[in-house]
Amino acid sequence: MKTVLIVEDDQVNARVFSKILTKRGGLAVKHTENVEEVMDIARTGEADLILMDVSLARSVYQGKPVDGIKITQLLKADPTTAKLPIILVTAHAMAGDREDFLAQSGADDYISKPVIDHQKFVDKIKSLLSPEE
After folding, report:
1. Which of the chain's ends, N or C, has fewer CB atoms near its CB within 10 Å?
2. Could you tell me the pLDDT band of residue 132, with boundaries at 50, 70 and 90?
3. Higher pLDDT residue, 31 or 57?
4. Is 131 helix (H, G, I), strand (E, B) or coil?
5. Which letter, b or e, does each residue of 41-56 get, where b requires 16 or more Cβ atoms within 10 Å of its Cβ?
6. Phi, psi for 64 (deg, rounded to 5)
7. CB of 81 within 8 A of CB of 42?
8. Residue 128, φ and ψ in degrees, nearest 5
9. How far is CA 24 from the centre of its chain?
10. Average of per-residue pLDDT across 85-102
11. pLDDT tens column, 117-129
């Protein structure tokens, strides 16, 4: 079973994403906003895809505040985790935000919140997961 790591500082959003992915998508889910944990899970291959909130209010890495863009940059710059698909998730959905966020972060895709179409959400995530071996 494929595992999606949800990096989200809003517990309600994390629960909604988790429920959609497990019930509708048949996927396993992990959740953390602890950046050290995110890096460990990514490096050890415990997740097949990361759903990354862009604006993480309380996240700190190596003593510095970081957001989802910065964490994605770190993961994409590391040869061990560079190929791990990352989808940015954000409520910042103004014209041009998608392109800006994807260009800045190197993420694989972008979903705006709130997620209205649950099936489309699951389909987008599954499209970036490699098929089961």
Report:
1. C
2. low
3. 31
4. coil
5. bbeeeebbbbbbbbeb
6. -115, 145
7. yes
8. -95, -10
9. 18
10. 89
11. 999 999 999 999 9
- DSSP secondary structure, 26-45, as one string: --EEEE---HHHHHHHHHTT
What is the pLDDT, as a whole number, of residue 130? Answer: 76
- Six-digit token pair at 103? 């260009």
The residue written with tokens 């190596």 in the block is 62
Measured in whole angstroms, the distance separating CA 120 from the mean position of its chain's CA atoms is 16
Token pair 């950046």 in the structure block, residue: 35
What percentage of the chain has pLDDT greater than the value 90?
87
| Strands (DSSP E) found in 3-126 | 3-7, 28-31, 49-53, 60-61, 64-65, 86-90, 109-112
In contact, 8 and 89? CB cutoff 8 Å: yes
d(CA 52, CA 45) in angstroms, rounded, equals 16
**Single-letter code of the amino acid located at 50:** I
Q: Is 76 left (phi over 0), alpha (psi -120 to 50) or beta?
A: alpha
**Hey, CA dihedral for 59, 78, 113, 23, is it positive or negative?**
negative
- For residue 52, pLDDT beyond 80: yes
